C-alpha cells in the first residue's frame, strides 16, 4: 500500500524557492526518496520529518545556475545538524512545560513585542514597502513644473504636449485632471472621476476587463463622449450587467457611451476615490489649455533601460528650450521628475519612519526583557547545568539547549502575536489618516505571517543567546564544585543589570517621543484657525445644467430656503471649503507692485463667496467693508484680501482701493475694498497663506459646485434633516454630498499626528511596564541573593533607613544609568518626529524632564516592594541559611 504523500506545504515552499531549471528533477528526486524511506522504515511520519528537514536545507541553500544540491539521505552527515536542532527543540518544549508561570510571562512579553511589530508591518507593507500595483512600476514617474523658488507645480496642457512630443526617455505619457460628474437617475449621485488623455491606461499598463481603451480620436472636443467604469461602480449601480457596453448613461444631463469596465483589482492610486474615466478633450486653442493654466498632472512611463537620472537630464534640456521660446509663461526653467512610488509615499513616509523607529524600540525592549528573564532562569538552573556538565555535556550543548527553549517560547509568542496583529490591524486601519494611500490593502496576509515568523525566530534566538553565552563562559568544572549558583551569578548579575538599564533607556526613548507628540498636538489644537468652527454644518451641492443664469438662480433659492429654516442663524456659499483639501489657487497681479515677469506673480487661494460668508465662518473684517448684495455682476468688481497677503506684497502700502487682476492678462481688474484676518486653509500648521475673496455673482462663470455653510443657533448637526428638506424641492436632481461638521474637519487635519501619538502612547505604556517589571525582577533577585548580608547588617544594628537606602540605591543607580544612555537615543529618535512637531522643539527640555521624573517614580515603585522585603529579613534565619 502506497504511503501518504509528501507534505503539501513543504512541496509548495520548494516549488516557490527552487529555480525553474532545478525544480522538476529536484521535486521528483525528493518524492522518490520520500516513498523509499517510508517503505524501508515502515513509518510515514519518519519520511515526512525527513522531507521537512530537506525542505529547510533547500530553503537555506543559495541557488544559482551551477547549483547541483541533492536531497541528503537519512542518517547521513548533512542530516545531523538539523536532527540535533529538532531534538533540542523537543527538549526545550519539555523544559517549558515544567515552568508554566515563567513560560507565560516570557510568551506575553514576546507576544506584545512581536504582535505590535506585525501589526505595524501589515500597515507599512502595502503603503510604504510595496511598489504600486501596475506592470513594471519602477518605470512610472510623475512630471511637474518647477517654480522659481524650487517648489513643484502642476503642468499646463501645452507644456505637457511639448514634453510628451520631445522626450525620447518616455515610451508613453498622459495628463489627468479631476472630474466630479453627477450620475443622473432616481437617486442622483456625485461621483469622483478623472478626465485623462487617451494614453492614460496604456501608460499605467492596465487594460479594461470588458470592452476597450480610449482611442486618440476620442480625445478631441468634437468626438463622441465616452466613459470607462470601475469594476466597483459597474457592480454597485449597474448590477454587473455585461450589456452595459455600448449603452449611453447620463451625467449631469449629458450622455456618455460606456466603452469599457476596468478589472476588479485595479487601484486608482492617483485619485483613490475615482470610479469612472473620460477623455480630457482639450484643444490647443482652449483658454484653459494654456501654458500658465497649471492644473494637470502628468504621468509617464520610462523606456526600458532609461534611468530616472537620464530622463531628468533630458527634461531639463527640453524645459530650457521651452522657456527660451515662451519666457513670459514661465518663472524659471526646470522640471521635477518623481517616481510614482516616491510620490505616493512621501507624505506618509515621515510618519511611518517614526512609527517604525518606535516599534523597533519596543521589539528590542521585548528582546531585552526576554533575555533578562532567561538569564534569571539560567541562574536558578545553575545546579542543573553543573550536573549536566559533570555528565559530559559540552558548552555547545548547553548553549544550544537554552537557545532552543527561547526559540520555542518565541514561536508561541509569535503565534499569539498574530492574534494581537489581527486586532491591532483593524484598530490601526480605523485610526489611520484617511488620505493614506492603499489603506484598503492593509491586512494580515502571507507577507505579514512570514515577517512574524522571521521576527519570532530572531527574537527567540537573540533572547536565548544572551543567557546561553553567559552559561557558556562559566567555569563548568567550578559549577559542580561550588554548587553552581555563584559561578553564574557573578557574571550574570552584571549582565542582568545592564539589560535592565538598557530597558530603561528604551522606555525613555519611547516616552520622550510620546511626550513630544502630545505637547505638539496640544499646541496645534490651540492654534486659532482664523474662523469659528463651532456649530457650523457644511455640505456640497452640485447644480445641473450649463446655463449660468439658471445655476445662479438655483443657489440664490438655496440661500433663501435654508435661511428660513428654524435654528439657522446664518448661511452662505463658497466654491471651496476650508481645511478640506480643496485647492483653487490663481496668480494675482497687483497694479501697484507689478512683477517684472507675469509668470512671477504671487498666487493666492481664490474664494468665490456669497455675501455673509465672513459672518457665517466667523472670519474677522480688519479694515474696509464686507461684500454685499450690491456687488452684483454689473457693479464694479471688488475683492477682499487677507492680512498676510497684503503685508507681504504691498508692504506699508494701504491695500484699500488698490487694484488686482486674477488670472491671465485678459482678466478684469478688481478693487480691494476690505482686508480680513488670516485663515488656515491647508492645515492648522499652514501659516501666512495668501487668500482672495470675490463675490460669486461677479465671477466669469457660475460655479455649478458650491459648498453650503450653515451656522446654527445651537447644535448644527441637528439641522441636517431640515436643511435637506429645504433644498430638495428646489431641484430633486441635485445631490448633496460631503456632509460634515466644521469642527470635525479641523480635527481631521491632525489625523497623522494623532495616529503617531496613539502608537507611541501604546508602545510607551508597554515599555514602561516592561522596564518596571525588569527593574523589579533584578532588585528582587538582588535582595534574595543578599539575604545573608542584609541579615548581618540587621544583627549589627543597621537602621531601617539604611537598609532601604541600600536597596533603593541600586534601583535608582540602574535607572539613572538607563536614563543617561536613553537621552542620547532619544535625541536621535526625536529627529524622526521633526516634521510632525508643531511649536515644540525635538529637544524640548520640559518633555525630557517630565519623562525622566516619571521613570524615576516608576523605579521607586518597582524597588519599594523588594525594599520592604529586605526590612523583614530575620537575622537568625539569614545566618542559618548562610
Secondary-structure map:
Blueprint (H helix, E strand, L loop, with lengths): L7 H10 L2 H22 L2 H17 L16 H21 L2 H30 L10 E7 L5 E2 L3 H10 L3 E10 L2 E2 L5 E2 L2 E4 L3 H5 L5 E2 L14 E4 L1 H8 L9 E4 L2 E8 L14 E4 L17 E6 L5 H18 L9 E5 H6 L3 H32 L1 H9 L4 H37 L14 H28 L2 H6 L3 H41 L10 E7 L5 H16 L4 E7 L10 E6 L12 E7 L3 H5 L3 E4 L13 E5 H8 L8 E4 L6 E8 L14 E5 L9 E8 L7 H8 L8 E6 H7 L2 H35 L1 H9 L4 H30 L15 H27 L3 H7 L1
Helix pairs in contact: 1-3, 2-3, 4-13, 5-11, 5-13, 5-14, 6-9, 11-14, 11-16, 11-22, 13-14, 16-22, 16-24, 16-25, 22-24, 22-25, 23-26, 24-25
**What percent strand?**
5-15%
Fraction of helical residues: 40-55%
Q: What characteristic shape results from the CA principal axes?
A: globular
**Whole-number radius of gyration?**
35 Å
Number of strands: 24
Number of helices, where a helix is a run of at least 4 consecutive DSSP H or I residues: 26
Number of separate domains: 5
* Distance linking N and C termini: 68 Å
The averaged pLDDT comes out at: 84
Quickly give the structural class. alpha+beta
User: What about the largest sheet?
Assistant: 11 strands, mixed
Contiguous runs where pLDDT drops below 50 for at least 5 residues: 65-79, 482-491
Amino acid at each position: 500500500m502506497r504511503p501518504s504523500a509528501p507534505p503539501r506545504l513543504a512541496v509548495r515552499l520548494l516549488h516557490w524557492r527552487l529555480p525553474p531549471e532545478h525544480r522538476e528533477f529536484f521535486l521528483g528526486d525528493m518524492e522518490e526518496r520520500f516513498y523509499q524511506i517510508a517503505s524501508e522504515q515502515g513509518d510515514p511520519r519518519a519520511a515526512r520529518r525527513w522531507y521537512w528537514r530537506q525542505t529547510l536545507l533547500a530553503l537555506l541553500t543559495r541557488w544559482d545556475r551551477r547549483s547541483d544540491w541533492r536531497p541528503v539521505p537519512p542518517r547521513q552527515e548533512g542530516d545531523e545538524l538539523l536532527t540535533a536542532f529538532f531534538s533540542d527543540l523537543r527538549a526545550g518544549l519539555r523544559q517549558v512545560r515544567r515552568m508554566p508561570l515563567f513560560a507565560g510571562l516570557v510568551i506575553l512579553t514576546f507576544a506584545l513585542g512581536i504582535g505590535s511589530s506585525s501589526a505595524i508591518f501589515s500597515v507599512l507593507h502595502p503603503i510604504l514597502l510595496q511598489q504600486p500595483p501596475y506592470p513594471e512600476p519602477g518605470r512610472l514617474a510623475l512630471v511637474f513644473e518647477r517654480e522659481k523658488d524650487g517648489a513643484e507645480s502642476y503642468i499646463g496642457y501645452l507644456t505637457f504636449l511639448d514634453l510628451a512630443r520631445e522626450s525620447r526617455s518616455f515610451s508613453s505619457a498622459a495628463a489627468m485632471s479631476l472630474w466630479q460628474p453627477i450620475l443622473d437617475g432616481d437617486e442622483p449621485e456625485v461621483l469622483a472621476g478623472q478626465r485623462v488623455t487617451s494614453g492614460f491606461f496604456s501608460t499605467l499598463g492596465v487594460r479594461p476587463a470588458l470592452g476597450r481603451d480610449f482611442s486618440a480620436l476620442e480625445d478631441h472636443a468634437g468626438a463622441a463622449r465616452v466613459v470607462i467604469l470601475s469594476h466597483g461602480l459597474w457592480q454597485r449601480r449597474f448590477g454587473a450587467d455585461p450589456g452595459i457596453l455600448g449603452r449611453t448613461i447620463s451625467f449631469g444631463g449629458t450622455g456618455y457611451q460606456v466603452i469599457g469596465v476596468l478589472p476588479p483589482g485595479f487601484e486608482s492610486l492617483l485619485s483613490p476615490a475615482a470610479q469612472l474615466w473620460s477623455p480630457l478633450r482639450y484643444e490647443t486653442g482652449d483658454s484653459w489649455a494654456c501654458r500658465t493654466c497649471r492644473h494637470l498632472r502628468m504621468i509617464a512611463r520610462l523606456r526600458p533601460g532609461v534611468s530616472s537620472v537620464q530622463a531628468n537630464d533630458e527634461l531639463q534640456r527640453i524645459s530650457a528650450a521651452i522657456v527660451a521660446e515662451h519666457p513670459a509663461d514661465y518663472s524659471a526653467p526646470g522640471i521635477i521628475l518623481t517616481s510614482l512610488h516616491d510620490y505616493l509615499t512621501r507624505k506618509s513616509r515621515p510618519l511611518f519612519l517614526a512609527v517604525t523607529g518606535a516599534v523597533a524600540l519596543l521589539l528590542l525592549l521585548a528582546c531585552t526583557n526576554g533575555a533578562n528573564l532567561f538569564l534569571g532562569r539560567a541562574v536558578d538552573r545553575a545546579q542543573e547545568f553543573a550536573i549536566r556538565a559533570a555528565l559530559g555535556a559540552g558548552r555547545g550543548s548547553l548553549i544550544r539547549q537554552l537557545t532552543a527553549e527561547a526559540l520555542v517560547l518565541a514561536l508561541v509568542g509569535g503565534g499569539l502575536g498574530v492574534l494581537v496583529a489581527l486586532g491591532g490591524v483593524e484598530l490601526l486601519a480605523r485610526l489611520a489618516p484617511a488620505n493614506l494611500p492603499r489603506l484598503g490593502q492593509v491586512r494580515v496576509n502571507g507577507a505579514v505571517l512570514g515577517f512574524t515568523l522571521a521576527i519570532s525566530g530572531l527574537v527567540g534566538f537573540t533572547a536565548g543567546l544572551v543567557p546561553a553565552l553567559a552559561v557558556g563562559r562559566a567555569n563548568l568544572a567550578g559549577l559542580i564544585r561550588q554548587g553552581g549558583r555563584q559561578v553564574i551569578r557573578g557574571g550574570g548579575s552584571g549582565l542582568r543589570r545592564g539589560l535592565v538599564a538598557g530597558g530603561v533607556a528604551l522606555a525613555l526613548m519611547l516616552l520622550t517621543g510620546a511626550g513630544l507628540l502630545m505637547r505638539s498636538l496640544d499646541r496645534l489644537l490651540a492654534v486659532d484657525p482664523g474662523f469659528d468652527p463651532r456649530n457650523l454644518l457644511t455640505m456640497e451641492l452640485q447644480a445641473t445644467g450649463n446655463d449660468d443664469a439658471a445655476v445662479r438662480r438655483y443657489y440664490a433659492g438655496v440661500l433663501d430656503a435654508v435661511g428660513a429654516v428654524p435654528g439657522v442663524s446664518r448661511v452662505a456659499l463658497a466654491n471651496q471649503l476650508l481645511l478640506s483639501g480643496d485647492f483653487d489657487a490663481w496668480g494675482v497681479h497687483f497694479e501697484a507692485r507689478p512683477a517684472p515677469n507675469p509668470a512671477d506673480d504671487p498666487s493666492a487661494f481664490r474664494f468665490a463667496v456669497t455675501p455673509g460668508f465672513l459672518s457665517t465662518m466667523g472670519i474677522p473684517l480688519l479694515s474696509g467693508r464686507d461684500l454685499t448684495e450690491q456687488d452684483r455682476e454689473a457693479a464694479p468688481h471688488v475683492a477682499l484680501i487677507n492680512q498676510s497677503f497684503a503685508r507681504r506684497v504691498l508692504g506699508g502700502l494701504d491695500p484699500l482701493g488698490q487694484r488686482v487682476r486674477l488670472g491671465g492678462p485678459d482678466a478684469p481688474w478688481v478693487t480691494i475694498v476690505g482686508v480680513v484676518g488670516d485663515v488656515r486653509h491647508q492645515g492648522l500648521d499652514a501659516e501666512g497663506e495668501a487668500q482672495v475673496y470675490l463675490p460669486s455673482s461677479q465671477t466669469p462663470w457660475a460655479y455649478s459646485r458650491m459648498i453650503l455653510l450653515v451656522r446654527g443657533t445651537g447644535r448644527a448637526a441637528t439641522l441636517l434633516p431640515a436643511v435637506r428638506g429645504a433644498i430638495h424641492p428646489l431641484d430633486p436632481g441635485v445631490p448633496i454630498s460631503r456632509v460634515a461638521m466644521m469642527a470635525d474637519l479641523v480635527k481631521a487635519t491632525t489625523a497623522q499626528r494623532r495616529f503617531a501619538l496613539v502608537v507611541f502612547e501604546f508602545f510607551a505604556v508597554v515599555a514602561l511596564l516592561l522596564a518596571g517589571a525588569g527593574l523589579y525582577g533584578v532588585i528582587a533577585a538582588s535582595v534574595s541573593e543578599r539575604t545573608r548580608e542584609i541579615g548581618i547588617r540587621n544583627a549589627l544594628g543597621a537602621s531601617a533607613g539604611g537598609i532601604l537606602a541600600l536597596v533603593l540605591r541600586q534601583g535608582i543607580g540602574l535607572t539613572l544609568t538607563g536614563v543617561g544612555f536613553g537621552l542620547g537615543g532619544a535625541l536621535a529618535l526625536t529627529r524622526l518626529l521633526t516634521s510632525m512637531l508643531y511649536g515644540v522643539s525635538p529637544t524640548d527640555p520640559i518633555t525630557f524632564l517630565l519623562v525622566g521624573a516619571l521613570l524615576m517614580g516608576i523605579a521607586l515603585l518597582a524597588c519599594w516592594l523588594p525594599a520592604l522585603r529586605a526590612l523583614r529579613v530575620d537575622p537568625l534565619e539569614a545566618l542559618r541559611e548562610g
